[in-house]
Amino acid sequence: MLTQPEFISHRDGRRDFLRAGVSAAALTGAGLLPLAGLAQRAPATTVAAASAPPVLTRRIPSTGEVLPAIGLGTFLTFDVLPGQPRQHLREVMQRFWEAGGRVLDTSPLYGTGEISVGDHAASLGIAEGLFMANKIWSTGEFLADESHASRSLAQSQNRLWRERMDLMQVHSLTNIEFVLPYLKAWKKEGRIRYTGITHYEDAYLPLLAAWIERGQPDFVQVQYSIASRRAEERVLPLAAERGVAVLTNLPFEKARLFALVEGRPVPDFVKEIGVQTWAQYFLKWVISNPVVTCALPSTSNPAHMAENMEALRGPLPDAAMRARMLKHMEGIPGFDKVTQMPWYPGKRYQGLIARNQAALRART
């Protein structure tokens, strides 16, 4: 296991990881970095108490800016129908912040997600301290028209109570031929800080890789979990080679991994690296890959939020431990079918998205 991560170049660590097949030496350099970059966003005392272990962080390759290695996703979980209770989401964000979380990923496509995030971030006084990753899904009135994208950006700024976005991403590669160049123009003009591209399905991995090469974004967001590892074949190595930061979505496979292990104890062998819960198990496996800049689990449950953030501290699994963790999961019946299970088993998120999807099914 890892005990004392060395302070080496993050990019070197990423390359070593790929050359050595997740070597222990590479993983040793994957975890802890100084929090100086975060200090510009928030007082150090809000990142970690003096007695707490340091937060696991990574650097953005293009700038060296430091980010915590676990963030917060908001798809479905932050989409609440107008007028319905949402105080629980404020507590989720508060616990996320107090545990050292800073990277928050949302989208105008996520129903009322942006509104929930913006209102609670403002009331908590943390809006400007968050590293806000947002998205553009735009086609325009005509070919190469910027109007839809500009309106989307302005709407997101208003909803999120932000003058400038940290990261704007081409959502699911939609109209990327024109949207990514506009994002680059916005970055040059100071309207955003970083550009990115995203997708959540393995079928689009070749296209993601092609746009890493062709478009040279600052970030790529890709599906990656202990059950979905195809990003290791091309996208992650290419991101390491090109100096592109990596956000990973679906570390819990939309709660399907938890359904698979329900009633099963966490194996004793991972307790030597401080893993006590399945959330820690799945998250530490993801972020122990040094190519990953930040993993984005999502939840609407404050207790689950606190549990997730426990993975942001302490040792990470080395190559041997990662292999053992994967082998253990492969021994659980149904693991090879996890990605074919229905989303969020046993959970219901009653927001605009769910309401409209139900209405559409009724009509068709």
Describe the structure.
There is one protein chain. The chain is built from 15 helices and 10 strands. The protein has one domain (57-360): TIM Barrel (Alpha-Beta Barrel). The strands form 2 sheets. An 8-stranded parallel sheet has the order 3-4-5-6-7-8-9-10. The protein has a two-stranded antiparallel ribbon with strand order 1-2. By secondary structure, the protein is α/β, with parallel strands linked by helices.
Order of helices and strands: HHHHEEEHEHEHEHEHEHEHHEHHH
In quaternary terms, these chains amount to single chain
Q: Strand pairing plus helix content: what structural class?
A: alpha/beta
How are strands sequenced across the largest beta sheet?
A: 3-4-5-6-7-8-9-10
CATH superfamily: NADP-dependent oxidoreductase domain
CATH architecture annotation name: Alpha-Beta Barrel
Taken from the alpha-carbon principal axes, the silhouette is globular
Number of strands: 10
What's the CATH C level?
A: Alpha Beta
**Fold-level CATH name:** TIM Barrel
Distance, first to last CA: 53 Å
Radius of gyration: 19 Å
Which percent range fits the helix content? 25-40%
- How is the main sheet built? 8 strands, parallel
| Overall mean confidence score, pLDDT | 88
**Tally of separate helices:** 15
As residue ranges, the low-confidence spans are 1-50
Q: What are the defining features of this structure?
A:
single chain; alpha/beta; TIM Barrel; TAT_signal; 8-stranded parallel sheet; two-stranded antiparallel sheet; 364 residues
